[in-house]
Amino acid sequence: MLLWVIYDISDDKIRSKVSKTCLNYGLYRVQKSVFLGDVNSNALDELKIILEDTINLDIDSIYVFPMSKDELNKAGLIGQAFDKELVSDEIVSKFF
């Protein structure tokens, strides 16, 4: 399944840990605080646990949205596309 991870974290050190964790799970950075990637359900469960243990639950937030490839194909883009150099050709081709 495709997975979106979107976060709002004020502390630079924590934000960096979350970013590295997302990259370690094979997600690609779409924007500064937005990651997208293809993960299995076990990886999704692990990632959610790690992220929950990483952030300050009282002030930080992370949205985790599983999405099927069919649903992603229905998604639209309004405005500028993300930096294509940060995303593999495979993921970019899923958008366009």
Automatic annotation (TrEMBL):
Homodimer, forms a heterotetramer with a Cas1 homodimer. HAMAP family: Cas2. The keyword Ribosomal protein does not apply. This is CRISPR-associated endoribonuclease Cas2. It comes from Methanococcus vannielii (strain ATCC 35089 / DSM 1224 / JCM 13029 / OCM 148 / SB). The keyword Transport does not apply. Its cofactor is Mg(2+). The lineage of its organism: Archaea, Methanobacteriati, Methanobacteriota, Methanomada group, Methanococci. Mg(2+) binds at residue 8. Keywords: Antiviral defense, Endonuclease, Hydrolase, Magnesium, Metal-binding, Nuclease.
